[in-house]
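Recall that a protein's primary structure is simply its ordered list of amino acids. Everything else, from secondary elements to tertiary packing, is in principle encoded there. The following example makes that idea concrete.
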Amino acid sequence: MNIFTKIGPSRARLGGAITAVFMLAACAGHGLDHKVKDPAVQFSAARIKADIAFLADDTLRGRDTGSVGHRIAANYVAAEYARLGLKPAGDNGSYFQEVPFKTAALNQETALMTVRVGDTEKKLALGDDYVMGGNVRTPNGDITAPVVFVGYGVSAPDFGHDDLAGLDLKGKIVLALAGAPQSFNTEIRAYYASTRTKLMEYVRRGAVGYISVNTIEREKHRPFARYKKYLGRKSYEWVMQNGQQDPTSLIKVSAAISADTARMMFQGSGHSFDDVLAAAEDGSPKGFPLKATVHMKRDSIVSDPFNSPNVLGVLEGSDPKLKDQYVVLSAHLDHIGVSPNAKGDDKINNGALDNASGVAVMMEVARAYARAHKKPRRSILFAAVTAEEKGLLGAEYFAHYPTVQKKDLVADVNLDMPVLLYDFSDVVAFGADRSSLGPITAEAVKKAGVTLSPDPIPEEGIFTRSDHYRFVQQGIPSVFLITGFGKTAEGEDGGAIFMNFLNHTYHSPADQITLPINYQAGAKFAYVNWLICSAIANADKRPSWNKGDFFGKTFAGSR
């Protein structure tokens, strides 16, 4: 069947729109911005504009994971790889690594949670007292067990902090405060605040269930009452190969509860939940067994498997000894599709900056390499990955099951949502200071005429929230640049522009081609990332973690 017939507009209208954008891309050889010593290496604002225009067109319907629109976008990227002469690095000699997914939604009719304290038992109201979600890897669970409060539930003895010390979790349901202690470094705090990090530790100690509750600070930013509207949302997971099981599936049921529900669970324990909340403001409260016993039941409605591709192409290196090593340049191709409840007539989340811009920059870097008279020593693997918006899943799948030898992946340079609304004067390089990529990045940025700035929004935990982190979790040094918050040459406030986008346009139908996108800034951003990739690819030694770095040590055994 012609895939265009599935989208909605007529074939003639859709075909005409796509043809028009292909013509724009084909004619986009003018408006060159950044050049280097090799006259063949150029970075074109016009070509970046053409790519964003195609990828953010309404006909792709927001490029949701597994959708026809995403598949069209993947075909577009693969066609450009082929035109540039990149070697296919996907499955079966193709450019596509087909990632198998399933979705799960909570069966709200059978979901159940009760709390018993002494002789009193209360059935809780789904959405008001507690929330659950469907789970692909642990679709069904029915447990009754006593509850142990564990503070933040963070075990970090190397930092002199262990909320779980002395607590017996075997056969118990863990109740933990969401997040991690404020005293931790922001990136390390994001690691320990991760639900998966916590669950892995609880599994190791024999727990069977998990409940989280907001702190005072978290409630301000993510009120529990807001969770109710997500009850019908589907969760996504990639399907594990060879019958493997996710260790966290030993936690049979998870839930989040309201503060009032937590207060009920603390009854008779000799401690009040409000005292615990107050203690969390100053540090991390001590854990202790509660008098409560909880019954939790979850059933999931799980979809049939479906595929959504990573698009992979390789520019082969020139050094006979190093060409089997790969520098990955990644950018997520997917976005969040259509929002039926969005305000106004426009319901399509086109994702022009998130992340059509990143993919366009990645393809412009690929063009620069393809045109160059001299190829880099190591190979460059260009990865347009899927399902970033579902939890960094496409990158996670590739990092687990790379189509080349995992040991030969030397670094990842990631492109995600460059906010190209101003001529940035600085960049923020997440992860650079954790490995030998730091000096490489600093030198590249200097050559490009911009400066390096520290993380301006550490509270967002960005280091663990984009695709490069999935490579970090496999022990691979990685760096991820965003446009900085400094003043532009024209006196514009980069930070104000960035935050205005983040607060009012991000993940909404307003993120579209009509934004005042600065395509010359896109060409400059391509140049910066090309410099970084080239320095890694041409270095005598492959990147290495800094001695004693937390993430280097934590994930050293993952390769």
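The CA atoms of residues 2 and 11 lie 9 Å apart. The mean pLDDT is 93.
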